[in-house]
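Question:
When you can, review this sequence-structure pair and walk me through the tokens.
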Amino acid sequence: MKRFLTLLGTVALSAVLLAGCGGNGGTDTAQADGEATVITVGASPAPHAEILEAVKPILAEKNIDLQIKEFNDYILPNTATESGEIDANYFQHGPYLEDFNNENGTHLVSVAAIHYEPFGLYAGKVSSLDELADGATIAVPNDGTNEARALMLLEAQGLITLKDDAGFTATKLDIVDNPKNINIQEMEAAQIARALADVDMAVINGNYAIEAGLKVSDAVAVEDKESEAAKTYANVLVVKEGNENNEAVKALAEALQSDEIKEFMETKYEGAVVPIF
């Protein structure tokens, strides 16, 4: 009987040890037997997923297998991170993250600031500001923080004037002067580049401009890199609160802020993606 109980205890201990090696995604460090740690990150196709592809070999050297899941909207990657379907996401800036948490009761936090994508005002039916007729239509993103940013770019070009205290919460209702009676057409950010031919001009998020093959150097106007927007709208690596100190997440943040990735951004995107580390 004593021998049987000893054997039973050994089996139970083995089961506990095996269970301790389980878990999802980046919640575990590399396994003792050499199996790579897997971390799954949600990202916009460009430039975020492209940047993550460049990070893959850096993490592979640390026995971390980076899996990239692409999303074409700004909602699903956050809900997937909150639910634990993915370990992290990389697609959004800080103000959008803050608004999303406030509006959806999520518990997502920034781990590291990686890059800034200048907003551009792109030509549609007309190719210059001087050609904008009275009542011309300019498309802007319809989500809170991005609409404010777009309106601030239009204000910088002298097209509109916003209330003094509007700031980063501005909407078209905060326009106090509109000498050309510009029709501000609010649209989902992901759809604006596709609608460019149907409007006179459009303010387009950096990642969607890149996906559409638009170059920031071709924009009619671009956010000043010294502007308040440039300082505020850094794209960040995001996890669910409590996962900030996960070893795989920390390794990913370090890789994203490496000199190798900085050179990749500057070479590939020619000013459309600006590293801020």
Q: What stands out?
A: Residues 155 and 161 are 5 Å apart (CA to CA). The first helix runs from residue 2 to 19. The first strand starts at residue 37 and ends at 43.
